[in-house]
């Protein structure tokens, strides 16, 4: 019982601290709200865009056929329940109808119809269906809203995977590198060699060698993101290893591994997390750039980058196809950078005292 009370008290203290940090840092609060919104929308893309689900339609048709066979065509409706394939009523506006810009029933078009008459029919079709396509459609008739939702899920998955891998790998490399002098000279020369190449060009080269796919894009961004974070952690460890409490631990005979994990590693967590937010934002931009050039995520899988890449030729006549994915990239990068700046201000004691 005592343990539960202590855990609850600790939880309340952490909650109060979090509220105080968010209240004192509006940029961090705004960034957290935006990031949370994007994450929820991306994770719920399959729900928000559930309309016209083939499995649902197939299941409904099978049940209808079974009801007809069992009860006959006259009475099957009494035993057949019509199931709405969209998950809820509020999802109705998200239902994808036929692409606007094309007459739904071409059989009614006269064989000698002029271009003006066909264009009138197309305009009428657009007027009737544009509400169902919030972001419009591309030139192939695909719903831009639907592709933006699913593209956001993939872009965020790439960024999250890369940032976690970079933070873990950089910590495993940077902490021993900064503490052991002999390892420092070898590892940092290798990191300097990687940083000699522009990160974006190196990512293009790696994806060109490995081939365009989700896994290969993650590998390329992971390799290009490690050197910068390793240098940050290494410089911090160089300062910490000369601090008084580390020297005191050495004086009482503490082993190097104990010093690294008990005394140095906890002091590097905050800078690693802050660096991870910038890696997250940079990964979104780099993935979008790779996919825009056609060397990132394959066109068969929607992402913000390849959406813009497919639309760049027709941007002058269908600007919405490139505007909405670009807007999502800009807002997401802005939100993550706001979170990174806010975390740096909240976790850095010097900046906190200065504020």
Q: Which structural category fits the helices and strands?
A: mainly alpha
Question: Which outline best applies?
Answer: elongated
**Termini separation (Å)?**
40 Å
The number of E-state strands comes to 0
Strand content: under 5%
The CATH architecture of the largest domain comes to Orthogonal Bundle
Q: How many structural domains? A: 2
Give the low-confidence spans: 50-59, 78-107, 126-130
CATH C-level label of the largest domain: Mainly Alpha
Q: Give the helix proportion (percent range).
A: over 70%
Number of helices, counting only DSSP H or I runs of 4 residues or more: 14
Largest sheet composition: none
The CATH topology name of the largest domain reads MetI-like fold
Order of helices and strands: HHHHHHHHHHHHHH
Supply Rg: 28 Å
**CATH level-four homologous superfamily name of the largest domain:** MetI-like
Roughly what is the average pLDDT, rounded to an integer?
Answer: 75
Provide keyphrases for this structure.
single chain, 355 residues, mainly alpha, MetI-like fold, 73% helix
What does this structure look like?
- By secondary structure, the chain is mainly alpha-helical.
- The chain folds into two domains: 54-132, no CATH class; 144-354, Orthogonal Bundle (MetI-like fold).
- Helix content is 73%, strand content 0%.
- The chain is built from 14 helices and no strands.
- Helix 1 (2-24) packs across helix 2 (26-43), helix 2 crosses helix 6 and helix 7 crosses helix 9 (214-240).
- The longest helix is centred in the last third of the chain and has 37 residues, at 256-292.
- The protein is elongated, with a radius of gyration of 28 Å.
């Amino acid at each position: 019982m005592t343990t539960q009370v202590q855990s609850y008290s600790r939880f309340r203290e952490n909650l109060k601290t979090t509220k105080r940090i968010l209240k004192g840092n509006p940029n961090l609060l705004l960034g957290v709200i935006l990031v949370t919104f994007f994450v929820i929308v991306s994770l719920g893309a399959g729900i928000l865009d559930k309309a016209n689900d083939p499995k649902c339609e197939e299941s409904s048709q099978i049940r209808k056929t079974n009801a007809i066979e069992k009860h006959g065509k006259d009475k099957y409706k009494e035993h057949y329940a019509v199931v709405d394939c969209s998950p809820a009523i509020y999802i109705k506006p998200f239902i994808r109808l036929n692409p606007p810009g094309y007459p739904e029933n071409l059989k009614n078009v006269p064989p000698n119809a002029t271009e003006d008459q066909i264009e009138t029919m197309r305009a009428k079709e657009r007027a009737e269906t544009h509400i169902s396509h919030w972001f419009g459609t591309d030139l192939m008739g695909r719903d831009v809203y639907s592709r933006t939702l699913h593209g956001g899920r993939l872009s965020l998955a790439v960024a999250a995977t890369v940032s976690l891998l970079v933070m873990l790998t950089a910590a495993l490399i940077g902490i021993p590198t900064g503490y052991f002098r002999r390892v420092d000279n070898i590892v940092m020369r290798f990191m300097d060699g990687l940083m000699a190449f522009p990160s974006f060009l190196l990512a293009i080269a790696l994806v060109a060698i490995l081939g365009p796919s989700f896994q290969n894009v993650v590998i390329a961004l992971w390799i290009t993101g490690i050197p910068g974070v390793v240098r940050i952690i290494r410089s911090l460890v160089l300062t910490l290893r000369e601090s008084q409490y580390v020297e005191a631990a050495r004086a009482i005979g503490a082993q190097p591994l104990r010093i690294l994990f008990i005394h140095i590693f906890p002091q590097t967590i905050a800078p690693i997390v802050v660096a991870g937010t910038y890696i997250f934002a940079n990964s979104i931009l780099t993935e979008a750039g790779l996919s825009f050039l056609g060397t990132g995520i394959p066109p068969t899988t929607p992402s913000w980058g390849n959406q813009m890449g497919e639309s760049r030729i027709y941007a002058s006549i269908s600007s919405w196809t490139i505007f909405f994915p670009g807007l999502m990239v800009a807002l997401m990068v802005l939100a993550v950078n706001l979170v990174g700046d806010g975390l740096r201000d909240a976790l850095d004691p010097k900046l906190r005292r200065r504020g």
